Amino acid sequence: MTAFSVRLTGTKYGCGGGGCGACTVMISTYEPTSKKIRHYSANACLLPICSLYGAAVTTVEGVGSTKTRIHPVQERLAKCHGSQCGFCSPGMVMSIYTLLRNNPEPTSEQMIAALAGKYCHFLICRCVLKPFSSGTLCILFSTDEFQPLDPTQELIFPPELMRMAENQPKRTLVFCGERMTWISPVSLDELLDLKAAHPKAPLVVGNTSVGPEMKFRGVFHPIVIAPARILDLNVVTHMDDGLTLGAACSLSLVKDILTNAISEFPEEKTKVFCAVLQQLRTLGGEQIRNVASLGGNIISRKSTSDLNPVLAASNCVLNLASKGRKRQIPLSDIFADGVGNNTITSEEILVSVHIPHSRKGEYVSAFRQAPRRENALPITNAGMRVLFEDGTDIIKDLSIFYGGAISTTICAKQTCWTLIGRHWNEQMLDEACRLLLQEIALPGSASGEKVDYKKTLIVSFFYRFFLEVLHLFLMILVVSFFNWNIQNLSFSNNSLLFQDPCHYPGVPMEYRSVLQDFQTKMPQSIQIYQDIDPSQSPQDPVGRPIMHQSGIMHATGEAVYVDDLPSVDGELFLAVVTSSRAHAKIVSIDTSEALQGPGVFDIITAHDVPATNEFYYSDDPEIIFARNKVICVGQIVCAVVADSDVHAKQAAAKVKIEYEVLEPVILTIEVQIEAIKHNSFFEPKRKLEQGNVDQAFETVDNIIEGEIHIGGQEHFYMETQSVLAVPKGEDKEMDVYVSTQHPAIIQEMVAASLGVPANRIMCHVKRVGGAFGGKLLKTGLLASVAAVAANKTSRAVRLILSRGDDMLITGGRHPFIGKYKVGFMNDGRIRAVDTKYYINAGCTPDESILVAEVSLLKMDNAYKIPNLRCWACACKTNLPSNAAFRGFGFPQSALVTETWITGVADKTGLSPEKIREINMYKENAQTHFKQKLDPQNLIRCWNECMEKSAYYSRKTAVIEFNKQNYWKKKGIAIVPMKFPFGLGTRYLSQAAALVHIYTDGSVLLTHGGIEMGQGIHTKMIQVASRELNIPMSRIHFCETSTRTVPNACASVGSAGTDVNGMAVKDACQTLLKRLQPIINKNPKGTWNDWIKEAFEQSVSLSATGYFRGYDENMDWEKGEGQPFTYFLYGAACSEVEINCLTGDHKNLRTDIVMDIGCSINPAVDIGQIEGAFVQGIGLYTMEELKYSPEGVLCTRGPDQYKIPAVCDIPEQFSVSLLSSSQNPYAIYASKGIGEAGLFLGCSVFFALRDAVTSVRNERGLKNTFSLNSPLTAEQIRASCADDFTEMVIGIGERCLKHIKVNIL
């Protein structure tokens, strides 16, 4: 059963692996013994329907709707402007709704925990935290109109399920499917019998491990046993020596039990509990913890388990059972011999786990480092325990376990044995680190594993444990010294308690901050914008923070996306078959086995394309189906159509393709070397130059040279590529419902592939669940695949890419290598710059040449450089072609610019902000391509950001903090921005609109723009409302369609509101002009009176509007032109704190000031700024795309690829719109805002660099260092060089010479 089949489409399928939270639902169960109902959130994509027997499932439709009533949670999300594209909004609603069902007055910590499993590249900060946080200062909405939460009005638990639970005896459940059988026993004996009969059958409780393996790795289990209903596996027993927890207990339940135990037992007994609880807080999201079981986490023995190392180190015991036998073993035994361990036989069941109390003189800690602090698999984790001889610092017992290092949890037993009997001092620390590096052998990895980083974490974690124990020693010593009468006690001279603690200061103050992990706090945000003129009509909505037109429907799940469309009679589902080779000749395609699969209808190849299979938008084609060879992993070779999505995917996996590898295969990040070697470029290469660069280099005081690597970025729109192609049955007509930014190009490509005129193909777009530039040409190719299949089969064909296939096929932001040479004077004036950008375009051109051009045009950012030369070339490689992405080259080239700005600061000894101020545009000037600009608002943004952020006083505070803390450092940076607006040529910015007025006075509006979260339809309704002088409630937008607005340009480049707004305004003014004589005759009449009269006078009540586009041009031969219409300006100041031992960091505060002219809708525009900024944080600090040496994308889902989450939002986040700013070139003096804010995320990058610089200066590391993007924890840790990193490089041979602590 799926949401699609029962028409409950509010629950969205985002990733299929429980990683994004878009599919969150509430599960409710009734326990007849306690008479209690339990509510918990869960990921629907992982929940087997069989596991829900007797449970009630509440989807977003059950919470509230526009047809019944809107729930307060839904109301707040919408009215607080917490929804943009809306695709993930139902999941957010369900997370908060479930929390409120259990806790009507939740704490901020509970809210953060509930949202930690949410994944959204749009605006996690505003989509989630503002609507539900009472602590947020916000002037974009009024809370007075919100309906209160009334728990008495919630849905009741179904009485029939309650009666069934109370009256029906438990019985074994057996569900048989097409390929597998699900068995759910009710007793332990029955379970043991089943396991004896089916030893290979997995036990499934939460399906968080077996589910993804079956779904993504092709693992098949014909029989699955579900033991969750067995009481023995759900036991919770408090014993004298600890807790015994059933193996089927959920991790959330374990978390609650341990929390209660910690509050009830003496601190001395709860150290194990505290360590386990610490790991549970960040293990997965709330939805995962609610269903994942303690036993499953242990038995899977995965190296990524955060619990296994600490449980093993703590001497936890496993209670096992098999038919006729029960036994106990230490949990550590299952990791004794590595991956091949067979301590637990295939017939044995883990019944329960015993977690012991800690003892006097025993210390337990757990550590982890992950790509993201929350809801992310660890890079490395650890569990450590030490027990001392009574009253001494002599090690009696020691346990050290690591996870993430190899394929399972590993014990450093040789190290532990060696250290027993040692004193807990520096000598022991030095020896331990060397022993650990020698014992924990990490194999080199071809897939880019962070071997050196993991080794550094291994010793850094132990050092952290060393400090923690040392610190606790001192605390115990102080308490003991002052609470006991020493004269009356007999202690040996070695006794700690015999010594005066004042003589033993323990861990120095400057080291102690590292003993505290970064905690996620509820972000506090401020938004400031200029209010409307008091004289403006109350009915005029322009300039007001109007709620997103679809906000309520987003929150209720009623907003329809492509995959929500009802099924068409006879509809088929399509799955693509992609290349597994990066560059190879196709020798043969064997489809025989696939065609025999159940439900398979046909297989589509290049031979089935009636007309165009290759589109030449440049010298190199964009290809629908590979015909004779493949040029990247992920290229579409053929497709399977079947009666269901499951059958199509099963058959696709059975298609066998034989290849013959071709040379060369160009993959590496050093693309310029490979590209030059093989002359592998897309033409033309571009160059801009002004002044005399070579001569200027001869006259400067200093020259620096360097390079920076900037990684790519996955679009990670929440709605994957989606197409529904429906043949109409006559005249070769076809309707194509598609998630795209550019319906006209879809129409053109589909028509060309089918060999029919464009007027036979109608493309429809209601809304798009995120795009960011990723739904243009690639979507056209995918739509053509579906259309060719629909044409061949004469059936409707639905193509919805899985998250993994979407990431594999579509490419993303272009990776850059920027090389620079900069000449400057001693006073900081930059006189000459020579830069080269090598852009990894991928295997086809797509938009790469345009990206290269824009990167050159915008590379100066905010700086006037008198002598400048810049080059850009798009390198052809055997990776999926990269595409347009928010910012379109500017985020990369401007980061290169800011990098050499900071390099000049380092060389001159001046601060980076001083270098920026010295070289910033200050008066009317020309850019390096001879376009005039007035930088007045740039200077205003810079000065206001300086003032609002209190930059200089905070910088002083940062310096003081860094003096007082050795292992944690803060950094602060402020970055300006000049963002040119324009598409380079007039025809790309033309737009059209169509406005109908009906006789009842209602208005239907349509235009060529696409709603993808940026609120364009809302703004267009605001424009029409102002022009027609009628309320917004009278105006409706239906869909964007090539049927109503032909030849519309793509919604790209932040231009949607500018150009379509002009077209809508033109159409409305045409209508108003027709109505004016009627209005003049009856000035006191109503709108309905005028419309009725117009109809009776045969006045046309329908009008088109048109905007020719901006007069933009660029002559690349001369290197000059007017490619932009106007400029946006801004500045951002960010402050961060880093952990020098792990490389982890926390974003403390960000202040942004942006010049966006006169905002049409401040709520939408500020949301765009915030969302773009957070996406920029992802680009510059965490989002890593990793490829294997064979060109296979390794990061194909939220498990491997991490975008920002709640924990990454600055704790204090302020956005101010520059007041009194006018723009004569755009609709109502506004400015296009969608892209500009992303670059400001680099203020976090440079704040991190500032913190790293402080570390290096303190440690005497004066040599020049470079940081690449994304600036991950791995890079930060490597740059914070110390004895531990030196030990790793020297393979454990060096001593800890510079790390000193005062030892007891």
From TrEMBL:
InterPro entries: 2Fe-2S-bd, 2Fe-2S-bd_dom_sf, 2Fe-2S_ferredoxin-like_sf, 2Fe-2S_ferredoxin-type, 2Fe2S_fd_BS, Ald_Oxase/Xan_DH_a/b, Ald_Oxase/Xan_DH_a/b_sf, Ald_Oxase/xanthine_DH-like. Residues 175-360 form the FAD-binding PCMH-type domain. The active site is at residue 1235. Mo-molybdopterin binds at residues 741, 772, 886, 1053. [2Fe-2S] cluster 1 binds at residues 15, 20, 23, 45. GO terms for molecular function: 2 iron, 2 sulfur cluster binding; FAD binding; iron ion binding; oxidoreductase activity. Its cofactor is FAD; [2Fe-2S] cluster; Mo-molybdopterin. SMART domains: Ald_Xan_dh_C (SM01008), CO_deh_flav_C (SM01092). Substrate binds at residue 888. Coiled coil: none annotated. Binds 2 [2Fe-2S] clusters. [2Fe-2S] cluster 2 binds at residues 85, 88, 120. Residues 1-63 form the 2Fe-2S ferredoxin-type domain. The keyword Thylakoid does not apply. FAD binds at residues 203-210, 293-297, 306, 350, 368. Keywords: 2Fe-2S, FAD, Flavoprotein, Iron, Iron-sulfur, Metal-binding, Molybdenum, Oxidoreductase. The keyword Transferase does not apply. Homodimer. This is Aldehyde oxidase 1.
